[in-house]
Amino acid sequence: MSLDKSEVQKIAWLARLAIDEQDIPNYSVELSNILDLVERMNSVDTDGISPLAHPLELPARLRGDEITEKDQREHFQKHAPLTDEGCYLVPKVIE
Amino acid sequence: MHQSTLAQLSAALESKEISSEELTRLYLERCKKFNDSLNCFITINEDEAIKKAKLADQQRAENKHTALTGIPVAQKDIFCTNGIKTSCGSKMLDNFIAPYDATVVEKMNAAGFIMLGKTNMDEFAMGSSNETSFYGPVKNPWNTDYVPGGSSGGSASAVAARLTPIATGTDTGGSIRQPASLCGITGLKPTYGRVSRYGMIAFASSLDQGGPMALTAEDAALMMNVIAGFDERDSTSAEQQVDDYTKNLNNSIEGLKIGLPKEYFGEGLDSNIAKIVEDGIKELEKLGATCKEIELPNTELSIPAYYVVAPAECSSNLSRFDGVRFGYRCDDPKDLSDLYTRSRGEGFGKEVKRRIMIGAYVLSAGYYDAYYLKAQQIRHLIRDDFQNAFKDVDVIAGPTATGTAFKLNEMIDDPVSMYLSDLYTVSVNLAGLPAISVPAGFDNNLPVGLQLIGNYFEESRLLNIAHQFQQATDHHKAIPEGFE
Prior knowledge:
Chain A is mostly helical. Chain A contains three helices and two strands.
């Protein structure tokens, strides 16, 4: 497995990560090496084996649809980079 | 006093031989004195700790205390601590003051533990050497040219150097056991779901588990009694009765059946390590255990499967760090997309970015079946291997790590080699089992750990065996030179 420059750029975009142009060759080699390691999985036949997502295979717990949390907006927004009147501010998205 | 175990400290506080304030000041002085050379703390919580210690002394005077009231602890910086910086070893959270306590922290505070500070760690717990931290590498007190292991390297180093009597760690692929092994302390990774993940910053949610890093198995048991248990705020918390983990510590291990996986003693294991681990197992035989060889045939596949499952879950979990609601935001974003990509690109370190990208790739359209589904199928095989083994044996024993601590910078530019060093730990996380690492000896003056793996919810049995081992051996009592 070898990822070329455009594939690295595509993955970085999917992951919403800005990466430096000069780092791409390194990422390309490192990510390809990791995928080579991962491909050792193909040495075993897993046809018919069910996937295991959760080690204890417990069913998801349900709870009543009731409000259990109190409003802590101000408390939480103290840690935000930029807020105004209870809203989180980001650059303009609609012209 | 700083060489004491929790049980000894508890007795000293009870008999008024020392006050919590004196004890806390003693450990704080050590933390400050040695942090320059070891770098095991990101935050030292001096004022708050002394305030809490005074309160603990008052509670003891009024007889409103638990056995552990007034004993210092260090929390891995992955656990949210209300009003205190919680960085997860990342620039992304360098400015993050947690707005609430993790369940583990809440429970330890309620039991009266005094938090000395927050320990250094690999960034977002991704690493096996503690070199990926934004705050610089942690050093191993046995030799400061060497790594302490990771990701709970700060906790392991601090406990080994006696800067704190006990600490918390988290283990996603070995992050409690491997640094415990490399620093010569006792580290328990509980069964998945045994300890609440609420407020523990998520790396790979189906693997992450918090647990104790201590000087002895008895101390680990005392901490487990505080932190284990069901938590409705963690959707994968186990609704299973909690043992008194100290109850069976003194039981004999006569008749215990130990399985020795041949895959754990094959090539890839350093021969000196093999010898020390085998000697440790002989010690258990002297105590009445019997051994038999077993097979865990898919062990080799655990690393490739792990490096699909963990990055996939990490890429999903870490998508919350977007520069909008908390954490790092880049300067002058030109639009929303620039805000996201640059905040993440600048806020995350190299190893975290690598893993997020691997995760994004294996989950991307067209690749899901070949990678993620395949890895989950292998995960099933690995769990079945263990379950088959546990039909014949009570516990599984082997090395914790493939070697002793390695030198700083030795492996940092070779992620794949670093990943392969997790060979004996990751399969336990994939299967969700409990496992403990206990000091078993030294190779070239660097500690070697013996790993014991139990069946689901058998922490009590592991702690019993580890305690019996520590009654018969002295490895856990060794103190690194300069830290006596």
